[in-house]
Design brief:
This protein is mostly helical. The chain contains 1 helix and no strands. It is rod-shaped and about 170 Å long.
Length: 135
């Protein structure tokens, strides 16, 4: 029996020691939480202030970026209008020159056809004149 009471005392006291240590750890943890609370509050306040300052500092930059985007849009629109006008002028010019060229080409073709017809008639008459009459 002596041996069994030895083990009961040994493990019983270990159990008591573990429970005491757990209780002490819990108390120390609570104390640490209480001691850290002001520092956590300060950190949260610092983070909130920093975020607010960052938002405040970024507002003019965002507004400026929006202004530049609008200016760029206006400038691009202006150039698009100018390019469109220029393109219309080029198209009109090409149409006009094509029309002039077509008219000139038609005149040249008619004159050439008339010359060819006249030369063909002259050549035909000369050929007919060189053929001896049939007897």
């Amino acid at each position: 029996m002596g041996l069994s009471s030895f083990f009961k005392n040994l493990f019983g006291s270990a159990k008591d020691s573990t429970t005491d240590l757990a209780n002490q750890a819990e108390v120390k943890f609570e104390q640490a939480k209480e001691a850290a609370a002001p520092y956590i509050d300060k950190a949260e306040t610092f983070a909130e202030e920093t975020i607010a300052k960052a938002k405040e500092a970024s507002e003019p930059i965002l507004e400026s970026a929006a202004e530049y985007a609008n200016k760029a849009k206006d400038i691009v629109s202006e150039y698009v209008e100018k390019a469109s006008d220029s393109l219309s002028e080029v198209i009109d010019s090409v149409k006009e020159k094509t029309s002039e060229t077509a008219g000139t080409t038609k005149t040249i073709v008619v004159e050439t056809a008339a010359d060819a017809t006249e030369k063909t008639e002259t050549a035909a008459d000369e050929i007919i004149d060189t053929i001896p009459p049939k007897e």
